[in-house]
């Protein structure tokens, strides 16, 4: 079982709303310092956040003439990572700034998120898991709600904690959610999708109170794809609600969780403050659980995954291991998930 960080995949760098024109933002992803900056035309770039001259983070500088300027000596780097200017050079001095480069990363901005491709420079990105698109909305849609929080744990524990179907009655004890007193047996059909799996569209369980605010007869499908993206799409007649969760590994002990909500249900906007509070409470309960979990993990215990409640976690590890192995062995990806029905009580 591979427990490292996956490469040659797309990760969320940050929400689009966090990066204004002419500004920069520093992020650490997979132990690597990266600075994102947006030029005057709105285009986003990402480069390694260390100046090759004296090692100061470029993010302490400013965006000037569509470049990121080092705050120490004014060296400027464009979106490709090439140095465009060294102010201290005098005419005739034999040094071409353009030969000095920092690593740059492919980025993609869509539906309110800025993505970054972490991997080998010569890798064919068309072969990587594609960024999940909310087909009901256009590329320029903006999220109604955005919430970013740090989980103090390895990305694997964050992923399987969020997809765990059996923890709800115990972790999410709230008036708006089910409790252990209303636990029912669930039967859900699952099917493989590209580099992931999907809980096939169905009507939510009768003890799932949160869905009732949508009115009508909602149906939902939940899709997980590598490296660590969960998208729930709820349909209420012709209307749509998406809950979009993307996890980004910061380092071995921290994971950035980006939670967004999108909808085209007009009257639901009136409940935006309540939905925002619900999202913060819900994600905060998950964060509290994984934070407490770290106390036990300090002792490196042997852990268990059982049928059927933990089968999705098993699939996650299988998908992750297969993706890593197929890259290392330079062979085709062999999907480990098969169509099936799972049963659990929650």
UniProtKB/TrEMBL annotation:
A molecular function GO annotation: 2 iron, 2 sulfur cluster binding
Enumerate the PANTHER family for this protein: 3-KETOSTEROID-9-ALPHA-MONOOXYGENASE, OXYGENASE COMPONENT, IRON-SULFUR DOMAIN CONTAINING PROTEIN
Q: What is the phylogenetic placement of the source species in the record? A: Bacteria, Pseudomonadati, Bdellovibrionota, Bdellovibrionia, Bdellovibrionales
Instruction: Name the chain's protein.
Output: 2Fe-2S ferredoxin
* Pfam short name (any one): Rieske
Every copy of the Rieske domain together lies at: 11-116
Alphabetically sorted, this entry's keywords are: 2Fe-2S, Iron, Iron-sulfur, Metal-binding, Oxidoreductase
Q: Where is the signal peptide?
A: none
